[in-house]
Amino acid sequence: MKAFLTRSFMPHHPRQITRFGVASEIPARFIEKNVSLRGRVQTITEIGLEVEHIPIYIPVLSPLLAKGGGGVFTLAVHLAGVELTPEGRVWLEQHLSPAQTVWLKLVSREEETLHCLVSVSRGSLRSLCLNEEVLRLGLARTVPVSGLHPQSHLYLRLHQRLLRAEVKAERKGRGMWKEDSLWERTSQAVRDNSLVRLIRRIFKWT
């Protein structure tokens, strides 16, 4: 993983141990610095995930900063630069267990939606970026990264990384890039032939 995906962010400010219930509560500088937040998966949505933020816990100080109510508030998270297919959402449901811990690398924010690189742990020194993984499996397509200027260094670097994953799926014919067999293509061509459709209608009438 490159630095943008793996760089850690150590707490230097009380806000980093505050639980964020909605995207608008996250300071703008967190977005600008691409801070990573830890979260717990609550549900899979049409655009990505609903995630409960898990703040860094510091004894004595954390309880003082905790918000009252005790309810679960979730952040709407979109996989940055990715448009999921229906199969992609099913894959996320199958591979993200309820309450599983994920890391959200903040990329941008649009109203109450966070655009993030979402990763899960794969051992003490490894992590898997879900944005790249669904593209590598042909379960999503790349789209412009919302909230970033198309000529910015971050946009170009992130889009190039995601595009490489998508091209790999296309070359290997995975998921949405899987080509029909010769028999399937021939059968479809026959079904679409106007003469064949006319003959079928005649047989129905007789």
What does this structure look like?
- With 206 residues, this protein is an alpha+beta fold.
- It has a single domain, classed as OB fold (Dihydrolipoamide Acetyltransferase, E2P), CATH 2.40.50.
- 36% of the residues lie in helices and 23% in strands.
- The strands form 2 sheets. Strands 1-2-3-6-5 form a 5-stranded mixed beta barrel. Strands 4-8 form a two-stranded antiparallel sheet.
- Strand 6 and strand 7 form a beta hairpin.
- Helix 5 runs parallel beside helix 6.
- The longest helix has 20 residues, at 153-172.
- The termini are far apart.
- Mean pLDDT is 82; it is low at 1-14 and 58-65.
Task: Report strand %.
Answer: 15-25%
The top level CATH class name? Mainly Beta
Task: Give the tally of structural domains.
Answer: 1
Q: Outline, from the CA principal axes?
A: elongated
Note the main sheet. 5 strands, mixed, barrel
- Radius of gyration from CA coordinates: 22 Å
Strands side by side in the biggest sheet: 1-2-3-6-5
Oligomerization state of this entry?
A: single chain
- Span between termini: 66 Å
CATH architecture: Beta Barrel
CATH topology: OB fold (Dihydrolipoamide Acetyltransferase, E2P)
Q: Helix and strand succession?
A: HHEEHEEHEEEHEHHH
Protein name: TNase-like domain-containing protein
InterPro entries: C3orf33-like, SNase_OB-fold_sf
Quick description:
Helices cover 36% and strands 23% of the residues. By secondary structure, the protein is an alpha+beta fold. It has one domain (23-179): OB fold (Dihydrolipoamide Acetyltransferase, E2P) (Beta Barrel).
Keywords:
elongated, disordered N terminus, OB fold (Dihydrolipoamide Acetyltransferase, E2P), 206 residues, alpha+beta, two-stranded antiparallel ribbon, single chain
